[in-house]
Amino acid sequence: MFAVNGSSMKTAFCTISTQSHVFKSNAMLESVKRHTKTDLFCLITDEITDEIERDGIHWQGLNVLNGLHAKSIIEKYTGNALRWACKPLYLEYLLKQGYDAVIYGDNDLYFYASADFLFEKLQTSDVLLTPHFYPVDYEKNQDQLEANFRVGLFNAGFIGVNKNALTAMNWWAGCCKYNVKQAAHRGLFDDQKYLDLFPILFDRVEILKHRGCNVAAWNVETSPRSLKDGHVYLNDEFPLIFTHYNIFTIRCILDGTDGLLAPGMQQYEKALQKHKSGYTLAQELANDKSQKKAKRRNFWWRWERRFE
After folding, report:
1. Helices (DSSP H) in the chain: which residue ranges?
2. Angle of CA points 25, 30, 35, to nearest 5°
3. pLDDT of residue 287
4. Which of 64, 71, 106, 129 has the CB geometry, 3.0–4.6 Å to 157, for a possible disulfide?
């Protein structure tokens, strides 16, 4: 139980993973556990199993999902698409287990401070969303300005909900059943672009303006990093709460673009190595092929603008 303003909340923090990335889920959930007292869950999407509790983490399989759209989603998708489409299903499932508030985080997040204040917000807000905070300069950085509309205003690697959000989760799951793919010309970006409609369709949706949450490569320009007494701050105001170590963030840290996050990434890498000996983020970056794809995509966007 989690005490807020004299009352108690039953809270949970969850993630979703395949077997190959369980080591990341362990590291992420352990970072949450270090700072926040809450129940921890991980859904494994390539295994159907009875629930196992190990080291304070509840591991579950797809068989626990029984929402309206669960069967269709599980039959339709595999791999990443299945993981992404299961987010609203898993949040719905945990809320129906009696939790007052549940936070989902991608397994490549890592927490450096308490998430308590996020659960506190879910006493008065039904949904918490984190903006990407992409640059919006229409003269100097049109690629990033347009990214807001191509990939979505909010990052689906983090979302918080309370028990009043069941309708929103059911709608989101229905959207994921319809389509989980990247097709900018159709307004689609996996499970993520649908979140743009949340503040319009549902009440008490809070857009989290704390710049220390979901720190990543996409906001290195709009949320400048600084050091105060050895701690990283964003915009000289917000302490670092959690970083999103997707491949773009890893690249920006290793190439020096986001150098102030390097010590935190070293801590993260050690946490990963605890569960996967010999693993390095540099090797993950070396094996990644998304940079070439991104360069080709950016080239065509710029080429298109030349003929406007």
Report:
1. 22-35, 70-76, 79-96, 116-121, 142-151, 166-178, 198-201, 247-254, 262-273, 281-287, 290-306
2. 135
3. 87
4. 106
**Domain-by-domain residue ranges, the chain?**
2-306
Length of the chain: 308
Q: Is the pLDDT of residue 6 over 60?
A: no
Decide if 208 contacts 132 (C-beta within 8 A): no
Cβ-count burial of 219 within 10 angstroms (0-12 exposed, 13-18 middle, 19+ buried)? buried
Q: Which tens digit of pLDDT belongs to each residue from 245-299?
A: 999 999 999 999 999 999 999 999 999 999 999 999 999 999 876 666 666 666 6
Q: Report the distance separating Cα 246 and Cα 252, nearest Å.
A: 10
The confidence band for 143, taking pLDDT boundaries of 50, 70 and 90, is confident
Q: What CATH number does domain 2-306 carry, 3.40.50.12780, 3.30.365.10, 3.90.550.10, 3.40.50.720?
A: 3.90.550.10
